[in-house]
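Researcher: Quick test of sequence recovery. Tokens follow.
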């Protein structure tokens, strides 16, 4: 489409990138067919094409109100539209640019500012998050049901991790929310990869990937976290670590974008490129290995929920399912597997009504084949789907590890 950005818009740091993306859109509307919020709301402004027009109008100087910001906020950033788009429009990048530019001109209501600030303060800080989570569990019986849903009644303990003993070494991102909500996920990963001859280690200085800040009106803070993680990982990378594995696909998707987001930073561009190239989702590590040492034996029926950040952002859809089948699991069919569950980072908190509708729709599809367990690859999806207290929801690596026979000297978790 043609564009005519204002002089003020052209002074934005990413103005050329925004204009290029706008011009790549041919407004065909194929994106609306797979947009979760458009399907729920039926409003053109709540589909990708409409939001692109809203951002274009803003950058071209048309009057923009709080209502426009609401339509952008209601986007899940699931990137389903990018998978559908025949023109390769980088919608999520345009959305990030538009949201940041609008945030500088349109003041949010006080309650929204406080909520977003609180999320940015608490969630990326793993120790604070764990403390508040434990407090919430104690007070859970006294809370309204809507708040109870956000706090798991039970959290599986991590169990021991094997000592580093193999020549092959990879780093793992411990993350922030996952360390409190599902501490056994990374521990199970370390134990499984140890059986495959790979030692897993973490760097304590590497924390939140930066996605929470970046998508909640604090993009520069998110990039600061990215730089801090790069600095933390760099000595291990120089010492021969072969990969940086993520067990939360949302974190993995953002780390793989470090190269793009920091390409203009002369001090970090090359390092960011290296880190992004080493960033691998757990399935990318395991699918390349000889899985015979795992010797899994199970008759469990699983339904796999593929997170949007795995299938649409990282383009790894359809990769976990064959691995699980190879290990002996029986996977039930899931209709409309491309659709979002409504978690979407902090979306389930900032947009609870829409998130709950999407969650229940996904659960209906996931439960249609009557699985014993629903498995996924992202802590946000795991927690959000699990908040309905229906079928148990877990990370797939934990279910894999539990199906393995114990090795000599291994203590049960």
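Model:
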């Amino acid at each position: 489409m043609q564009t005519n950005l204002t002089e003020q818009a052209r002074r934005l740091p990413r103005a050329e990138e925004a204009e290029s993306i706008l011009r790549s859109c041919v407004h065909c509307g194929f994106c609306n067919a797979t947009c979760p919020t458009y399907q729920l709301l039926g409003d053109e402004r709540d589909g990708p094409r409409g939001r692109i027009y809203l951002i274009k109008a803003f950058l071209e100087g048309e009057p923009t109100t709080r209502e426009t910001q609401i339509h952008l906020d209601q986007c899940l950033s699931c990137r389903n539209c990018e998978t559908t788009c025949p023109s390769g429009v980088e919608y999520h990048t345009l959305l990030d640019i538009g949201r940041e530019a609008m945030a500088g001109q349109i003041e949010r209501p006080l309650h929204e500012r406080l909520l977003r600030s609180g999320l940015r303060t608490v969630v990326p800080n793993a120790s604070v998050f764990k403390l508040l989570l434990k407090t919430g569990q104690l007070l859970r019986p006294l809370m309204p049901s809507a708040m109870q849903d956000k706090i798991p009644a039970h959290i599986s303990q991590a169990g021991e991790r094997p000592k580093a003993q193999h020549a092959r070494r990879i780093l793992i991102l411990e993350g922030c929310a996952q360390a409190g909500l599902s501490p056994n996920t990374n521990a199970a990963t370390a134990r499984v990869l140890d059986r495959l001859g790979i030692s897993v280690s973490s760097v304590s200085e590497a924390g939140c990937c930066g996605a929470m800040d970046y998508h909640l009106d604090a993009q520069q803070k998110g990039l600061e976290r990215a730089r801090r993680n790069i600095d933390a990982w760099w000595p291990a990378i120089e010492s021969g670590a072969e990969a940086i594995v993520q067990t939360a696909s949302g974190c993995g998707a953002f780390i793989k974008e470090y190269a793009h987001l920091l390409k203009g930073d002369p001090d970090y561009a090359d390092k960011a490129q290296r880190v992004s190239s080493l960033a691998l989702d757990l399935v990318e590590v395991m699918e390349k290995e000889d899985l015979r040492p795992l010797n899994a034996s199970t008759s469990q029926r699983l339904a796999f929920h593929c997170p949007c950040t795995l299938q649409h952002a990282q383009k790894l859809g359809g990769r976990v399912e064959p691995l699980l089948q190879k290990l002996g699991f029986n996977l039930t069919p899931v209709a409309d597997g491309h659709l979002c569950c409504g978690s979407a980072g902090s979306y389930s908190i900032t947009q609870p009504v829409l998130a709950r509708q999407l969650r229940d729709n996904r659960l209906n599809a996931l439960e249609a084949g009557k699985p014993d367990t629903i498995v996924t690859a992202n802590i946000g999806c795991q927690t959000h789907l699990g908040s309905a207290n229906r079928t148990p929801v877990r990370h797939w690596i934990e279910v894999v590890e539990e199906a393995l026979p114990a090795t000599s000297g291994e203590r049960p978790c």
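The chain has four domains: 7-103, 112-148, 168-286, 293-402.
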